[in-house]
Design a protein that fits this description.
The protein is of the alpha/beta class. It has one domain: Glycoside hydrolase, family 3, N-terminal domain (TIM Barrel). It contains eleven helices and ten strands. The strands form two sheets. The protein has an eight-stranded parallel beta sheet with strand order 9-8-7-6-3-2-1-10. A two-stranded antiparallel ribbon has the order 4-5. Helix 5 runs parallel beside helix 6, helix 9 crosses helix 11 and helix 10 crosses helix 11.
Length: 333
């Protein structure tokens, strides 16, 4: 049945550190495509291995496939696996005098990160951050970016992606088309990103072009509104951002992911029906809902109704489902 495909497009956060009724419902009733782990789900190494093993065994038994299990393991302050201590991306770039040394730093920590993730049953890292950050002390992204030079950010980000893939980890580059000129944090605010010139725009998207050339698994869309492209809709709800630019102009043919749809930039301003309709038409494959299960349930129900009653949404939905199922068929770590 068509409705059985709805859940595959959702990657959902959950509560608890072991197999529980919430996880059982997400897999058995909703058939979710992925889960996103946070600090609240991780106690230590042994517990995490047991949790991910159990999740995948249950998914294989009930769905006949494994799940995407994702974390934000960027390094520095954004580390869901606290027992894996790696420097922030900015530190990898700044604590070296030459580009060769910076590449060596990135290679080392990308390899260490990827090997640790795969050992713990995680197959997707929601990194690297490819936003350009000029002043790490004033920008909300701070040291999460590799730096302020688009060419170098692209070079180091592509290397991170390639090393991760070598060790069996899918990477998701973020936050397209860039938050370098955002003054507010989308976790808390609706925001516009204003490019002063075409050169500013191309500077911001340049690292993502490098990631695409490196065959990055996925690209996460910023919640910002980009008036030069689309003055009305934020990134994951914009056909201009996702289809026109990312798919058509940049020739990206792999996964497009939303940022967390629980962030206030989206959840405080758009009802569930609008979120799933616009994001599906825009071509977003994977919808992340990381903190509010009831919000996920409303989005899920809204998408069912749209797929049943709106032919354009149904067609776009099936396009994403095909891309997702093709990845499932390839097998997940």
């Amino acid at each position: 049945m068509l409705t059985n495909t709805i859940g595959s497009r959702f990657w959902v956060g959950f509560n608890g550190t072991s197999w529980n009724d919430e996880l059982r419902t997400l897999i058995e009733s909703y058939h979710v495509g992925g889960l996103v782990l946070f600090h609240r789900n991780i106690v230590d190494s042994e517990q995490l291995i047991d949790l991910t093993n159990t999740i995948q065994k249950q998914a294989l038994s009930r769905l006949g496939r494994r799940l995407f299990i994702a974390v934000d393991q960027e390094g520095g302050r954004v580390r869901r696996l606290k027992f894996l201590e790696t420097p922030a991306p900015r530190s990898l770039a700044e604590n070296a005098n030459t580009i060769e040394q910076r590449q060596m730093n990135v290679s080392r920590y990308s390899s260490e990160t990827a090997q640790t993730l795969i050992f713990h049953g995680i197959n997707v890292n929601l990194s690297p951050v490819l936003d350009i950050v000029h002043d790490k002390s004033s920008h909300f992204l701070g040291d999460r970016s590799f730096g302020s030079d688009p060419d170098e950010v692209g070079l180091l980000g592509a290397l991170w992606i390639q090393i991760h893939r070598k060790h069996g980890i899918h990477s998701v580059a973020k936050h397209f088309p860039g938050l370098s000129r955002a003054l507010l944090d989308p976790h808390e605010h609706r925001l516009s990103v204003l490019w002063d010139s075409p050169s500013d725009m191309y500077s911001d998207i340049k690292p993502f072009e490098a990631a695409i050339r490196a065959r990055v698994f996925g690209i996460m869309i910023s919640h910002g509104i980009y008036p030069l492209w689309d003055p009305k809709w934020p990134g994951p709800l914009s056909t201009v951002v996702c289809r026109e630019w990312l798919r058509k102009r940049l020739s990206f043919d792999r996964f497009i992911l939303s940022d967390d749809l629980d962030m206030k930039a989206i959840s405080d301003h758009y009802p569930p029906q609008v979120i799933v309709e616009r994001s599906t038409l825009a071509g977003v494959d994977c919808l992340l809902v990381c903190n509010n299960i009831s919000h996920f349930e409303r989005l899920y129900e809204a998408l069912i109704k749209l797929v049943e009653n709106n032919s354009k949404v149904r067609e776009a939905h099936l396009e994403s489902v095909y891309r997702i199922e093709r990845e499932f068929e390839r097998g997940l770590q």
